[in-house]
Design goal:
This protein is mostly helical. It has 3 domains: 1-47, no CATH class; 53-164, no CATH class; 185-437, Cyclin A, domain 1, CATH 1.10.472. It is built from 20 helices and no strands. One of its GO terms (biological process) is cell division. Keywords: Cell cycle, Cell division, Cyclin. InterPro entries: Cyclin, Cyclin-like_dom, Cyclin-like_sf, Cyclin_A/B-like, Cyclin_C-dom, Cyclin_N, Cyclins_cyclin-box. Belongs to the cyclin family. Cyclin AB subfamily. Residues 222-306, 319-401 form the Cyclin-like domain.
């Protein structure tokens, strides 16, 4: 079969032009009659709208005076090339080189031109704009607009280079640690961010309950934090317990005398999911002052898992805390203070409106502000949490207010827990009062 040969240069569907500007006959599948019926490419180019009649004579008056024409081939029509950073840098370099040449040296001297260009008059583009009655050629306008755009991009790039701070690779040191799953860690947390909405509940779900309220929920969570501490359970168990309670109460009406039963059953389920050694049912009955029987606990367990459709694999604030603390390069002091602040939020019903990832990021931001005495949120933290300082301020101010009153009132379980030496006396840290004292002005800034 006769056709184009991609492996042989010079042979294709349409052959290269001959010396007279026409197509070479006998090459390619569009060859019949081409040499006799089609015009030469050079003559077709003369009819293209917007192309100057000759590149060496922009000014028509100069041509009429010299009464000469140039036989050079016409330049291609300028194409609108996307201005990338690399292209912008190249154009800027060319512009600087042109600017370094004196104005008088830019115009070509006819005496030094080749013999075939003796009759051509070269006119500078700036002179063409000022003296010619004709409109400025399209390619001149395009070039000037492009250069202005390049100047603007140069300024933006320089500002970005000055302001931009490199983001630290927090997983670089764990390349040899198989438990760190460096190859998959980004995809894992991207999945957590995508599915965390499934673990959230409506911030006003308590309005659907007829016999309990948000204050009773706070009392229950505060008591469970003490039970969790007494049993020396894992941190993951506490956060999953609170999540199970909220998700269950958002779907199932509960009378107040059964609310404590919901709490201990949620902790039993969380222990079965997270712990290696699970507390027995009798221990939970004993800790609740034998208010319920074994059968009631098991019946509530069945009701809860069926209501929640056995969905225990949900991202809680704890999984985000571990990742974000790594991004913050935390020490033990920052870690304990961050967990103290976020456990204060577990008790507060109004914090349900914030997503788990936002709670974790805001807790670390608040802890950093508490320890540093000023706002501190690095670019690395912003990169890995996907939250800016402005997005965290509302949640952070609420956390500071909880910290201020943590040791007062009736719900002091978290404060007592973090006042011990085991937790570094984190509760005794001075709150970041300046975050609460700041108030937004009318222009959206801070006062």
């Amino acid at each position: 079969m006769v056709g184009s040969d991609e492996n042989n240069p010079g042979v294709g569907v349409i052959g290269p032009a001959n010396n007279q500007g026409g197509l070479r006959a006998g090459v390619g599948k569009f060859t019949t009659g081409i040499g006799h019926n089609r015009r030469a490419l050079s003559s077709i180019d003369r009819n293209v709208i917007g192309v100057p009649p000759n590149p060496c004579a922009v000014n028509k008056r100069a041509l009429s005076e010299k009464e000469a024409a140039c036989d050079m081939k016409h330049p291609p029509i300028p194409m609108h090339r996307p201005i990338t950073r690399k292209f912008a840098a190249q154009m800027a370099s060319n512009k600087q080189q042109r600017a370094a040449i004196p104005e008088e040296s830019r115009k070509l001297v006819l005496q030094s031109a080749p013999s075939e260009l003796k009759d051509c008059v070269f006119v500078d583009a700036e002179d063409c704009k000022g003296t010619s009655d004709l409109p400025v050629p399209m390619f001149v306008q395009h070039t000037e607009a492009m250069l202005e755009e390049i100047d603007r991009m140069e300024e933006e790039i320089e500002m970005e280079d000055l302001v931009k701070v490199p983001v630290m690779d927090i997983d670089g040191s764990d390349n040899k640690n198989s438990l760190a799953v460096v190859e998959y860690i980004d995809e894992i947390y991207a999945h957590y961010r995508k599915t965390e909405s499934s673990s959230c509940v409506s911030p006003d779900y308590m309005s659907q309950q007829f016999d309990i309220n948000d204050r009773m929920r706070g009392i229950l969570i505060d008591w469970l934090i003490e039970v969790h501490y007494k049993f020396e359970l894992m941190d993951e168990t506490l956060y999953l317990t609170v999540n199970l309670i909220d998700r269950f109460l958002a779907l199932q009406p509960v009378v107040r005398k059964k609310l404590q039963l919901v709490g201990v059953t949620a902790m039993l389920l969380a222990c079965k999911y997270e712990e290696v050694t699970v507390p027995v049912v009798e221990d939970l009955i004993l800790i609740s002052d034998k208010a319920y029987s074994r059968k009631e606990v098991l019946d509530m367990e069945k009701l809860m898992v069926n209501t929640l459709q056995f969905n225990m694999s949900v991202p809680t604030p704890y999984v985000f805390m571990r990742r974000f603390l790594k991004a913050a390069q935390s020490d033990k002091k920052l870690e304990l203070l961050s967990f103290f602040i976020i456990e204060l939020c577990l008790v507060e019903y109004e914090m349900i409106k914030f997503s788990p990832s936002l709670l974790a990021a805001a807790a670390i931001f608040t802890a950093q502000c508490t320890l540093n005495g000023s706002k501190h949120w690095s670019r690395t933290c912003e990169w890995y949490t996907r939250y800016t300082e402005e997005q965290l301020l509302e949640c952070s101010r609420l956390m500071v207010s909880f910290h201020q009153k943590a040791g007062t009132g009736k719900l002091t379980g978290v404060h007592r827990k973090y006042s011990t030496s085991k937790f570094g006396h984190a509760a005794k840290s001075e709150p970041a009062h300046f975050l609460v004292e700041e108030r937004p002005n009318l222009m959206g800034g801070e006062l």
